[in-house]
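User: Um, any thoughts?
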Amino acid sequence: MLPMPTPTMTQDPVWPSNSLLGRLRENTRQELLNIGTVVRYTADREVIEQDAKDTHVLLLLDGVVKVQTTDETGDTALLAIRVAGDLVGEMAALDQKPRSATVVTCGDVVAKLITSGELMSFLHRRNDVFVELIGMINDRLRWANQRRRDFLSHPAAERVARVLAELVQTYGREEPHGWTLGIPLTKVELASIAGMKPRTAEKAFSDLRKAGVVVSHLRRDVLVPDLAGLRKFAGI
C-alpha cells in the first residue's frame, strides 16, 4: 500500500501521482493545503452522505475512504477508493446539487474540510488547479466507463480480476507471499465495483481461488500471490 503522508505541513510528502495533490506544483500544492480546516475521523464514519445538500469538500491528508452509493431497493455498491492526496465531494461543491454518493472512512482519516466558497475562490485565483481538477474528474469518468465496458465484454470472475489488479497495483503492497490490497474491503464490496450483485461475488472469488491468482484471508484483506497471473486471467 502507498505510504500515507503525515498531516504536518513542515515538509512536502510524496503524494500519489494520480491524486490532486500529486498533480500540482509544490507552491500551488502548499497554497491549497493552507486553506480549510483540519478534521479527524475514526474508522467506519460516514463523512459525506448521499443526497445531503451540504457542499464542502474533503482533501485527504492521511488514511483511506471508500465511495459508495445506495439504490432505491437499499442495495449498496462500492464505486471507488480514495487515499491521501485525493479530493472527495467536489461534484456538490461545483454544481451545488445533492450528494451523489456516500463517503465512509476505512480506518482513521485526517483531512482538510474546505467549504465550496473557499474552493471556488481558490480555483478563481489558480486556474492551473482548475485544469488539474478537470483532469482528475476526467480520469475518474474514464475509469467508470471502463467498468461499464468490462460489464459488456467480460464474465464475472474476469471483471473482478480486472478491478482487483488495478486496485492492488495502485494501492497495494508487495509482501513475501504476494501482494495485499491493505484496505479492509469485503468480497461483496470488491465485486460491486465490477457491477455485480452480492450473490455473484462468492462465485467470482471462488473462480479466482481455483485459478490460483487470489486468496482471501483474515481482516477482510485479499492476497494476490501472482499479480502477473491475475492480470493474465483478467485479460489485461
